[in-house]
Structures are given as C-alpha cells and as structure tokens.
Write a structure and sequence with these properties.
2 domains; binds calcium ion; binds adenosine-5'-triphosphate; alpha+beta; 8-stranded antiparallel sheet; 406 residues; single chain; 13 helices; Phosphatidylinositol Phosphate Kinase II Beta; Phosphatidylinositol Phosphate Kinase Iibeta, Chain: A, domain 2
C-alpha cells in the first residue's frame, strides 16, 4: 500500500482554521475565474482580487465559518498557467476543495514553511515568506513567458498565489496575520511509491543526511530525503540513454539560465526514483508504450466553443510515463526506473536572503563549497553537478577528490 505522508489536518488540529480558510478562499476565487480566456495583457500581471469572508456572507462571498480576508494574485495569469500545464479546471477545484482535508508535512525544510498535500496528493500548498511572494510577483511575466516557450520546463509548476489575512492569537494577544502561500504540483505520483528521494543543490556544504542504512534496507516507510554527499557516497547516477540525457540537460540549462537571470539561488533538483519491478509491467503497458498521466492527459472537445477548457497542450516530456520519465524503453530490462524530477524551492532571491550568509561563511570556507553564492555561480555549479551525474563515466569518489570538501 501507499505510504501516507503527513498528519491529517482536520477539526481540532492547530492549523485547521488556516487550512480551512485557504481552501475556502481558493474555492470561491478560482470558481469565479471561469469566463472566456482572453489573451493576457500587462494589467493581468498586476491585478489582484480581494475577498472578505464572514459568518453572514454577502453578494460576493458566501457565508463562512470564520472571518478572514483572501487575496488572489493575478488570477487570470495563473488560470492560463494551469491551462499550459494541462490542468483541468474542474479537477483542480475538486482535488483541492471537495473535502476540506489536507495532510500537513511538518516543515520538511529549514525555512519554516508549511507544506500541505491535497487529499488526492496531486497538489502541494506551501506557505512562503513575504520576500518569496514578492519575488514571484515581480517576475511572474518572465516565468510565464518561460513556461510558454518551454513546455517541458523542469521548474516548479505554480498554479496559484494567494494570501489569507486572519486573526491569530499568540500569547493571549490577537494579531492579524498575513499568510502567503502558493499551490504547486506534487512532483511525486499519487499512485506509486518512491524508493529513493534526493534533494540536490550541487553544493557539498552540509549536504549529507545522516541515516541508518540498515533500517533503510529493511523498512520501506523509512525514507529520509538524501542530499548531495549521499548521492556521491552511494555513487548514484541518473541513467538516461543519449536522447533523454540530451533533452534533460538542454532543458536544465535553459531553466538554470532563467533562474540566474532572475537572481534566484538555493533551489534544488528534487529527484524521486521508483524502481520498477519486472512484474509491474504488464502486456497492456507494453502495448501503450507511453502511459498518459491522468492529470496531464485530460482532453475535452476543443472545437466546442462552450468548452471551458482550452485545448490541452502536449504531454510534458518528463511526465509522460506514470507521471515521470522512464530510464529506458527496454521493457524487460533489469533495474529499470521511473524518475520524478523537477527544480524546487526556486523563489529565494540572492540579494535579500543570502548576502550576509555568504559573508560569514566565506570567512572560513572555500567559496566553492558553501551553498550561498551569487546566482550565476550557483547556477553553474548546480548545472555542472547534475550534468556530471547523468549517465556519465564513473565519477571519482569525493574521498579521492581533493576538490570536494565536506
Ligand atoms: P529550505 O529553504 O530549508 O530548503 P523549504 O521550506 O523552502 O526549505 P523546500 O526546499 O521547498 O522547502 O522543500 C523541502 C522538501 O519538501 C523537499 O526536499 C521535498 O522533499 C519536499 N518538496 C518540496 N516541493 C515539492 C514538490 N513540488 N513535490 C514533491 N515534494 C516536494
Ligand atoms: Ca530547499
Ligand atoms: Ca527555501
């Protein structure tokens, strides 16, 4: 059976009201945004919609259990983005709001962000810092252009950017707090287990997850996210044939160039590996060759003018097999894998967040090994690390490699 991740956020949970308000806001705001799609104009990138909810409700908002304010940023742009990513509008709302249940992942990162999975595990809500929010808004047009020009981009798919403002009591005082959050794709599939997960930055500074290898072997529920030094230690590689390798690296390069241009750093390549057991591949799959993942494959009659969905774009190259990409097409090959891969956590602006860190870390450490370095250098180091990890010649282990310091 599937490993269920996170704690269910239901009534009584400390963050239940926050989650409830987030979902109520999304439900009302997104379902409003459903008229004909017009070509985006520059105003769409500046337009935000505000909604106020309370117990009584009004002509704009239905009655809500709790009083809060909701802000929907650039709704038309995100609607268009969802279309480009092949998300069906009705499915989107159903996944997120048909039942008000989310699973909370206790802040997996150090940033203090909260992560919530939609009930069907397809979407992730991540709370973000105000500076990350500002960064996304400022560069939304470039992000949009990039997605449009690169249907196979590996950069995180953003589906919505919102804010809730609500009273939160802290130490007997009530404060109105603004919580920024976004909705994005869960890179990992709802229906398959991920056997190994890596979060790779191309940096070696502190990039080792301590884990118990024996427990890891024994217990399929013990799945810590591994990092760069584990990757080198385990002599892992991304095993793509030449075509996939080329496609992957070309796309990665373009994505990294955009992130560097937008002054972003500290992102990682999230890589989930599902090992295919030979019996998993039945004849049916052999015939179909490429299984279309339900999320990206929904097709509605695009010739029907009343159709609310725009024509669905081609299936993402890196998501075409069970939502991921197979390491090979040889169906009976031993050790065949499905990779789930994307660039995550890509809203950290260098100038705001990292200048200080670079300063104090560089005092004692080799500049190449610290993780806070200027965006262009960060991007180059990131790209080089990944490039070396794809189906290349055996790499010198870090122990023998004087360039890599722990
Ligand atoms: P930090 O800034 O300390 O790295 P963060 O709070 O910004 O942390 P992320 O780096 O975005 O968090 O994500 C932390 C972890 O959550 C990732 O390593 C990954 O395991 C999981 N995760 C994040 N985004 C996704 C996604 N889109 N799909 C699946 N898992 C994800
Ligand atoms: Ca991160
Ligand atoms: Ca982060």
């Amino acid at each position: 059976d599937r490993v269920l991740i996170g704690n269910k956020v239901s009534e009584g949970h400390v963050n239940f009201i926050i989650a409830y308000n987030m979902l109520t806001g999304i439900r009302v705001a997104v379902s409003r945004c459903c008229g004909f799609m017009k070509p985006l104009t520059p105003t769409d990138f500046k337009f935000n919609k505000k909604l106020a909810f309370d117990y009584h409700g009004n002509e704009l908002t239905p009655s809500s259990e709790y009083a809060f304010k909701f802000k929907d940023y650039c709704p038309e742009v995100f609607r268009e983005l969802r279309t480009l990513f092949g998300i069906d509008p009705a499915d989107y709302l159903v996944s997120l709001t048909s039942k008000y249940i989310l699973s909370e992942l206790n802040s997996p990162g150090k940033s203090g962000s909260f992560f919530y999975y939609s009930r069907d595990y397809k979407y992730i809500i991540k709370t973000i810092h105000h500076s990350e929010h500002r960064h996304l808004r400022r560069h939304l047009q470039e992000y949009y252009k990039h997605v449009k020009a690169n249907p196979n981009t590996l950069i995180c798919q953003f589906y919505g950017l919102h804010r809730v403002k609500m009273p939160i009591s802290f130490q007997n005082k009530i404060n109105h707090r603004k919580i920024y959050f976004l909705v994005m794709n869960n890179l990992f599939p709802p229906h398959l287990d991920i056997n190994t997960t890596f979060d790779l930055k191309g940096s070696t500074w502190g990039r080792m997850t301590q884990f118990d290898p024996q427990l890891y072997e024994r217990d399929q529920f013990y799945r810590p996210v591994l990092k760069d030094l584990n990757w080198l230690d385990m002599e892992k590689r991304i095993e793509f044939g030449p075509t996939r390798k080329e496609k992957f690296l070309i796309q990665l390069k373009k994505d990294v160039d955009l992130l560097a241009k937008l002054n972003i750093m500290d992102y990682s390549l999230l890589l989930g590996i599902h090992d295919i057991k030979p019996k998993e591949i039945n004849d049916n799959q052999k015939e179909q060759q490429q299984l279309v993942f339900p999320e990206t494959g929904s097709i509605e009659d695009s010739t029907n003018p009343n159709s609310k969905t725009a024509p669905i774009t081609a299936v993402h190259y890196f998501k075409q097999f069970e939502g991921g990409i197979r390491s090979s097409d040889q169906f009976d090959k031993d050790g065949d894998k499905i990779y789930y891969v994307g660039i995550i956590d890509c809203l950290t602006n260098y100038s705001i967040m990292k200048k200080l860190e670079t300063f104090w870390r560089s005092l004692n450490h080799d500049r190449k090994t610290v993780s806070a370095i200027p965006p262009r250098d960060y991007g180059d180091r990131f790209y080089t690390f990944i490039q070396k990890s794809v189906d290349a010649l055996p790499q010198t282990k870090y122990k023998d490699n004087p360039e890599i310091k722990r």
